[in-house]
Specification:
Layout lengths: L3 E4 L5 E3 L17 E4 L5 H8 L2 H24 L3 H37 L6 H27 L4 H27 L9
Antiparallel strand pairs: 1-2, 1-3
């Protein structure tokens, strides 16, 4: 493994051999770098560099935002166009619980790799709670749009409310995740 260096100003870590005259992240002179040893085992670092959880988080975000847009835009149309938007929303609603549970499971795995334990971290406990709440909203959505239908105003309002509640959970999860990004991970 190549020797690593870390910028003392911004914390950017990179292989020593790739360092040029300045930090590629913040632009300070290369003299601001110091030797750095990764506190994680090679196996844990490899698992983290896959970025599976951060990638998986974008899918439910895109789904729930798309559902809101599709349902709202569908309100502006009548007849066949409205039915097309509602049909798209109904189909997407089936996949939302699947992508939410995938992101949740990858989040738990990521938390265990990064912090070794979810139980010790108040932030991770909150993330689990909001992840489960998001899953409940995501699971309720297809029940509403498939069993009740979204042709009427009341079912559509419920579908929009569930989608908005899912988006709110998603925002809270993102903020909680951002709060632990700079955490020093436990060793090897």
């Amino acid at each position: 493994m190549a020797k690593m260096v870390r910028c003392k100003v911004c914390g950017y870590v990179m292989p020593e051999g790739k360092l040029r005259d300045k930090c590629p992240a913040c632009g300070v002179a290369a003299k601001a770098f110091e030797p750095w040893e990764d506190p994680l085992s090679e196996q844990r670092r490899r698992a983290l560099t896959l970025d599976l959880h951060p990638i998986a988080v974008h899918f439910p975000t895109a789904f729930v935002v798309s559902l809101i847009v599709i349902f709202v835009v569908g309100l502006a149309f009548r007849g066949g166009a409205a039915e097309l938007f509602l049909c798209a929303g109904r189909l997407m609603s089936l996949f939302l619980p699947l992508v939410v549970i995938l992101a949740f499971l990858l989040g738990v795995k990521d938390g265990l790799v990064r912090f070794r334990s979810v139980q010790r971290s108040e932030v991770l406990k909150k993330k689990v709670l909001f992840g489960l709440l998001y899953f409940v909203f995501a699971l309720a959505l297809p029940l509403v749009v498939w069993l009740w239908g979204v042709a009427g105003a009341a079912p559509l309002a419920v579908a929009l409310a569930l989608s908005a509640a899912g988006l709110a959970c998603n925002v809270v999860l993102s903020l909680l995740g951002t709060s632990v990004l700079s955490s020093a991970m436990p060793g090897k």
